[in-house]
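Researcher: I'd like a candidate sequence for this fold, 425 residues long. If you have to choose between options at a position, lean toward the conservative one.
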């Protein structure tokens, strides 16, 4: 099946790079978003997302005339739904954006069109939620139009490369829909294309991220056990991973991002009686910010009025994304206990916090009594403790990522406490 035109609904972290990649591979693409600010930014040749190489691809896609943006879909050969699927405060899936996107396609759906849901969704969303909405068009999925599910699995920071190189799972509501999906993505996907049914494809996506969340929870629990036994968990993990079939992930201040910290809840909500381990892993990871605050309190004593320089707000290193960031949860808890925080993160966007945000490391540490590393940005990994000691009265530091060398920091006069390692002698 050949595709000449498509609509991509949702100009976010996934939709925009996907739309541009299809456009630069010759399709006529309409990028749809309900947020007028996003449409204005894109029309002005700029991007609202910090992703290496994305702005150049967006500009090229517009220049080639193969990309336009709109607030509503238009008739096309294919429609991709790449809108957010957040969780509500009660950890239930919010499918409102998926439903709205599907409803907006109905007036434009024509016989022979392909619709692909990309958004990470609870199992059976494609067949039980999206299909009935699209069939309001009078066309039946399978005979009248093709319907598939195909999750993205790109790593923020590597999106443009991984979109093309990663293996792609395509699940059709029938085999013809899966084949149509394969024909579409084969326009640029160089990785293996794995064809299956829609619900299996939804489950594969959730399994990938849940697998990671459970293993991060295991690493965080190993960190707590290591502290209890006086072991350095970072050394122990490095040694254990020498085993040819062991790959233990790394502890940290918690799990953030709009994927790993969210997707497992879709399984817990859909079948709580069958997802006990999944739910427990989520609670272990969500407990980590409290664990970090306890660690800081053990090092600094009562936190009330303590002046702490906090390094990092994003959900992981060297990205500008703060969604579900555990660092923000740590900051909120420290502020609640009355700590006086100065926060420095050169990549994080504005975040409303009860704490002072400063624009330099020097400003952050100038009057600090303690230094807390919450995000292992490359710039923070490279901090020279000898120079830092000349910038701050602080001589206590807490490292939540095991990236600062304890000997070097001790030589510079710091008592460095690393999450998951025994307290400095
Ligand atoms: N984290 C740890 N320890 C680790 C690894 C990560 O604490 O050893 C934390 C990070 O600091 C971060 C969170 O987990 O707060 C998630 O980071 P991540 O790099 O694991 O995940 P994402 O959300 O950036 O990307 C993941 C990837 N999924 C997998 O690796 C299975 C990516 O391939 C997916 O496309 C993406 O989720 C997504 O969009 O689903």
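Model: Candidate sequence:
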């Amino acid at each position: 099946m050949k595709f000449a035109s498509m609509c991509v609904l949702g100009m976010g972290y996934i939709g925009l790079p996907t739309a541009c990649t299809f456009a630069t591979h010759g399709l006529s693409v309409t990028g749809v978003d309900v947020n007028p600010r996003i449409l204005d930014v894109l029309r002005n040749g700029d991007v609202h997302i910090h992703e290496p190489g994305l702005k150049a691809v967006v500009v090229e896609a517009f220049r080639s005339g193969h990309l336009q943006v709109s607030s509503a879909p238009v008739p096309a050969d294919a429609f991709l739904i790449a809108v957010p699927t957040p969780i509500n405060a009660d950890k239930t899936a919010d499918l409102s954006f998926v439903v709205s996107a599907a409803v907006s396609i109905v007036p434009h759906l024509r016989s022979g069109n392909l619709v692909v849901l990309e958004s990470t969704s609870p199992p059976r969303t494609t067949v039980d939620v999206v299909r009935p909405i699209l069939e309001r068009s009078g066309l039946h999925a399978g005979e009248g139009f093709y319907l598939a599910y195909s999750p993205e699995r790109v790593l923020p920071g590597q999106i443009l490369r991984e979109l093309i190189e990663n293996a792609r799972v395509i699940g059709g509501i029938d085999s013809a829909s899966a084949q149509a999906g394969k024909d579409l993505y084969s326009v640029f996907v160089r990785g293996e294309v794995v064809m299956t049914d829609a619900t299996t494809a939804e489950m594969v996506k959730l399994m990938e991220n849940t697998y990671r969340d459970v293993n991060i929870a295991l690493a965080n629990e190993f960190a707590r056990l290591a502290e209890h036994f006086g072991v350095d968990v970072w050394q122990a993990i490095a040694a254990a991973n020498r085993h040819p079939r062991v790959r233990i992930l790394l502890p940290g201040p918690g799990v953030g991002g709009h994927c790993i910290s969210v997707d497992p809840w879709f399984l817990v909500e859909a079948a709580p009686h069958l997802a006990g381990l999944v739910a427990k892993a989520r609670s272990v990871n969500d407990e980590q910010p409290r664990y970090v605050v306890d660690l800081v309190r053990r090092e600094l004593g009562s936190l009330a009025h303590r002046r702490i320089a906090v390094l990092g707000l994003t959900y992981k290193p060297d990205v500008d994304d703060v969604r579900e960031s555990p660092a923000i949860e740590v900051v909120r808890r420290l502020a609640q206990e009355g700590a006086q925080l100065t926060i420095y993160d050169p990549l994080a966007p504005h975040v409303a916090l009860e704490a002072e945000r400063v624009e330099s490391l020097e400003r952050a540490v100038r009057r600090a009594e303690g230094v807390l590393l919450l995000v292992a940005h490359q710039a923070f990994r490279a901090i020279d403790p000898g120079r830092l000691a000349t910038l701050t009265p602080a001589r206590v530091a807490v490292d939540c990522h095991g990236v600062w060398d304890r000997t070097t920091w001790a030589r510079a006069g710091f008592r460095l406490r690393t999450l998951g390692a025994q307290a400095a002698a």
